[in-house]
Every structure is written in structure tokens, then in C-alpha cells.
Amino acid sequence: MKASAFSDAQKAFILKQGADGVPVAEICRRAGISQATYFNWKRKYDGLLPTEMKRLKQLEDENGRLRKLVADLSLEREMLQDVIRRKL
């Protein structure tokens, strides 16, 4: 996945402008982003501070690593059970 060209503080500032009543089209034009990007950020980060945004990203990364680990362990377990079944 491509890293964002915007820092968490920049994203928070852009979203705050929208909360302050600046039209979305104007915000997107100034920031050089599409309206879809703005609304994706709003859905994901609305109301979060930059530090909270960073923590959210860390938790999502950790969750992804843990999911992969569980999938790998489940596959190994299935393979071992298959070997045991063949021996019996």
C-alpha cells in the first residue's frame, strides 16, 4: 500500500477545515486531493487528534501482523493433524 504524502497533522488540519464550515470542494482544491480522499479520511479519522491517528495506524499494522500469524499457525496445525491422521 502506498504511503500517504500527508502527515497525520496535515490530515487533521484538512478535516478541521471541513468541520469549521469551509466547502469540501475548496478544501480539496487547496490540498490537492480528491473529494473521495477527503471523505475516506473523514470516515476513518474524523474527530481524532494526530497522535490518535498514529496510534490507530500502529494498531491496524499490529492487527494485520497478528492475523497473518494466526493464519500461518492454523495452516501448520492443519498440516500436523494431517500427518497424524496418516500415521494412524
TrEMBL record:
Residue ranges spanning the membrane: these are none
Q: Which Pfam families match?
A: HTH_Tnp_1
Q: GO: which molecular function terms?
A: DNA binding; transposase activity
GO BP terms in the entry? DNA transposition
Entry protein name: Putative transposase
